[in-house]
Amino acid sequence: MAFRRALKRTVVVGTGAVATVFGLSHLIEYRKTQARLAYVTAEAELKVPYADELPSREAQLTALKTTEEFDVLVVGGGATGAGCALDAVTRNLKTALVERSDFSSGTSSRSTKLIHGGVRYLQKAIMQLDYEQYMMVKEALHERANLLEIAPHLSAPLPIMLPVYKWWQLPYYWAGIKMYDLVAGIQCLKSSYVLSKTKALELFPMLKRDKLVGAIVYYDGQHNDARMNLAIALTAARHGAAIANYTEVVHLLKTKDPQTGKEKVCGAHCKDVITGEEFDVKAKCVINATGPFTDSLRKMDNQETSNICQPSAGVHIVIPGYYSPDNMGLLDPATSDGRVIFFLPWEKMTIAGTTDTPTNVTAHPIPGEDDINFILREVRNYLSPDIEVRRGDVLAAWSGIRPLVTDPNSKDTQSICRNHIVSISDSGLVTIAGGKWTTYRSMAEETLDAAIKAHGLSAEPCKTVGLMLEGAKGWTPTLYIRLVQDYGLENEVAQHLASTYGGKAYDVAKMAEVTGQRWPIVGKRLVSEFPYIESELDWSQERKTV
């Protein structure tokens, strides 16, 4: 017992000393970042063009077909690709982006819906004294703060509970979570705190009571991943990028470099998937941001190139909302096979996931029954035995393919890069692969920095820190109340419009049809159980942007 007390004191004192050093360093760095943020935002507002009206898809395609040469052509309309397009166009580079399906139709819309630094990465950084893991967490926490700032209508802080069932885990997890707060510095969303068993059960009554010691609550961000991806793409279009979905790259265009005699990528031969029309898009630089399909495009460039992606499937399930509180998530830090499971409120439902299993690359991955049952088993371990989570409770499930990558320039071909890599082929194809949702912006910045240097492009510095995304302007936390009062919408519908379209919700509300009832006055639901209304379809059809 004396040894345990001494060990606990050592952990607390040591953590405090390290925390002080980290806290001071991050305070200084945060102040520098804030000064840069204010400067960059002001510069962006002054110098970056912005269109009041979004061009239609037809206009975007015309621009792709008729522009003599773009500076940058991005292939892939997920978070990373859209981020690259926004970064490029705001540097005053003539920018194009093509996506063969819907924007965010792949991995970017199949996430856990979290904007986070990665608690488990910080644990590895401390336990293994791994500086790279620490820097990953540090970067992600900075990007988390930026993303919550530039798209407040699509994101918000979320408290996440970590239940503790062994007494010794309480100081251990507390030290780790407090370090997570301190690495974030002043960008910490809210300070973490410890709960007694009674309070934990009061906030999360579905928890298993037996042997529960207490809980720790920390904060991360939650966002609408599909809408966030679309907001990034539309913001790029607002600033002048020519973006087109349902536009597939058939093959890459190449030309001989007059100085070296080597072939260089100079664009792509594309196909409008809807009409079947084919055309060339010329560009000084082509960026491969195709996620799990990274190697497919790399092999268009060079058939002999080796694969760098090792696809891994992450499965999530959706179960009824009564399995979790409306405003509190849950983290299982150590599943039976060493993974972590999140249990999160989402759109009045509950999301549980994720898995991490090797898979084949496909455009439409299907969740495996084994993965679904694994998640259900792990969820049952943390819920009261009075609550029977059944297979029939699974309302939906999805599988997203994470492209874990190996560095093609590394001598150790077996090493897996948990972060991301930017590589440039002999022919000049720039590839960005790996990474995670939270760091899409910094990944795009790094990619454009490399592309500009490799291709000798004339560009301005990155301006995307603090650059507000589509819908952020005009949004306030009470916007939905104005929609109810001014248009006579249902409260639930108004909240949905405000959190989906931000300041653009007024435009959607103006098109809402009269219901013919005393209340709501306007806003006919497409399906009675969900807050989607007809005017959303009308608004999208009228704009014909995507």
From TrEMBL:
<dbReference type="InterPro" id="IPR031656">
    <property type="entry name" value="DAO_C"/>
</dbReference>
<dbReference type="InterPro" id="IPR000447">
    <property type="entry name" value="G3P_DH_FAD-dep"/>
</dbReference>
<dbReference type="GO" id="GO:0006072">
    <property type="term" value="P:glycerol-3-phosphate metabolic process"/>
</dbReference>
<dbReference type="InterPro" id="IPR006076">
    <property type="entry name" value="FAD-dep_OxRdtase"/>
</dbReference>
<dbReference type="GO" id="GO:0005739">
    <property type="term" value="C:mitochondrion"/>
</dbReference>
<dbReference type="Pfam" id="PF16901">
    <property type="entry name" value="DAO_C"/>
</dbReference>
<dbReference type="GO" id="GO:0004368">
    <property type="term" value="F:glycerol-3-phosphate dehydrogenase (quinone) activity"/>
</dbReference>
<keyword id="KW-0560">Oxidoreductase</keyword>
<feature type="domain" description="FAD dependent oxidoreductase">
    <location>
        <begin position="71"/>
        <end position="441"/>
    </location>
</feature>
<dbReference type="Pfam" id="PF01266">
    <property type="entry name" value="DAO"/>
</dbReference>
<keyword id="KW-0274">FAD</keyword>
<dbReference type="InterPro" id="IPR036188">
    <property type="entry name" value="FAD/NAD-bd_sf"/>
</dbReference>
<protein>
    <recommendedName>
        <fullName>glycerol-3-phosphate dehydrogenase</fullName>
        <ecNumber>1.1.5.3</ecNumber>
    </recommendedName>
</protein>
<comment type="similarity">
    <text>Belongs to the FAD-dependent glycerol-3-phosphate dehydrogenase family.</text>
</comment>
<keyword id="KW-0285">Flavoprotein</keyword>
<feature type="domain" description="Alpha-glycerophosphate oxidase C-terminal">
    <location>
        <begin position="462"/>
        <end position="540"/>
    </location>
</feature>
<dbReference type="InterPro" id="IPR038299">
    <property type="entry name" value="DAO_C_sf"/>
</dbReference>
